[in-house]
Amino acid sequence: MSAPIRVLLVDDHALLRAGFRTILDTQPDITVIGEASSGAEAVAKASALRPDVITMDVQMPDMDGIEATRLLVADPAVGAAIAIVTTFDRDDYLYQALDAGASGFLLKNAGAEDLIAAVRALAAGDGMLAPR
Fold it and tell me: Can you tell me the distance from the alpha carbon of 77 to that of 124, in angstroms, rounded to the nearest whole number?
C-alpha cells in the first residue's frame, strides 16, 4: 500500500474543519496532518508540514484563501495541490482561484463523497471543479 494522502485543512471555522477531518480520516488512504484558521497560518503550516493536498476557504481573516493559494503555488518547496472550498457559488471566486493556481473548486454544500473524491483527484495530479 502506498503512503496516505497528506491533507492540510484551512478554514476559519473550527466546526467545519472538524467535520472535514472526520470525513477524511475515515478513509484509509487519507490522513489529515494539520489545520489552519487563516491564509497566513496556512502558508506557514504548509511549508512546515508539506501536505499533498490543501483544502482552502476563500474568506478568512489576516489573508484570504486566494492570496494564500497564490503564495503557496509560487513556493516550490510546498508542492501541494490546492482545492478552494467555499460557501459562495460565485464565478469571480472560481476564476480568481484558478488564476491563483488552485487545482480544484468545491462548494461547502457538496457531499462527503465529493470531498473525498476531490482530495483523491488532486493528489493524483488531476483537476476538479464542482459539478454546478
Answer: 18
**Phi, psi of 74, deg, nearest 5:** -75, -15
> In the beta sheet, which residues pair with residue 30?
5
- Residue with more model confidence, 2 or 63: 63
- What is the per-residue pLDDT across 65-105, written as a single tens digit (0 to 9) for each? 999 999 999 999 999 999 999 988 788 888 999 999 999 99
pTM of the model: 0.95
DSSP state of 130: -
Q: What distance, in Å, lies between the first and last C-alpha atoms of the chain? A: 34
Structural contact between residues 31 and 4, judged by C-beta atoms closer than 8 angstroms: yes
Q: What is the DSSP string of 23-79?
A: HHHTSTTEEEEEEESSHHHHHHHHHHH--SEEEE-SS-SSS-HHHHHHHHHH-TTT-
Q: How does pLDDT run across 10-19, given as a tens digit for each residue?
A: 999 999 999 9
Q: For residues 33 and 6, give the distance between their C-alpha atoms in angstroms, rounded to a whole number.
A: 6
Q: How far apart are CA 123 and CA 117, in angstroms?
A: 10
